[in-house]
Write a structure and sequence with these properties.
alpha+beta, four-stranded mixed beta sheet
Length: 93
């Protein structure tokens, strides 16, 4: 899948806001605010349950990595997430 298409589909899910559980949360990390070299995706099945977490990393910006963005989208779809949230920007590693 094209990286722009995957990013748009993720952004569309995020824009819907909180609609209940299951919840998928995405956060990007990097050494600088302009280069995200790691992404963490969390799945929370129901309120107060332990989150399941998966990390992906790359030498280049993961936000522009077609494979990683497609995998994130597939995780969201397979989890049948009611809500998707994304932390804005790049958090410090």
């Amino acid at each position: 899948m094209n990286v722009d298409k995957a990013k748009k589909r993720i952004a569309k899910q995020v824009s819907k806001g909180f609609k209940g559980y299951p919840l998928v949360s995405i956060e990007y990390f990097g050494e600088t605010p302009v280069l995200a070299t790691q992404v963490v995706i969390q799945f929370i099945a129901e309120e107060e349950s332990e989150p399941q977490e998966q990390k992906f990393s790359a030498e280049h910006d993961v936000r522009n990595d077609e494979t990683i963005q497609t995998v994130l989208l597939k995780i969201i779809e397979r989890a049948d997430a009611s809500s998707v949230s994304e932390i804005a920007g790049v958090s410090k590693l």
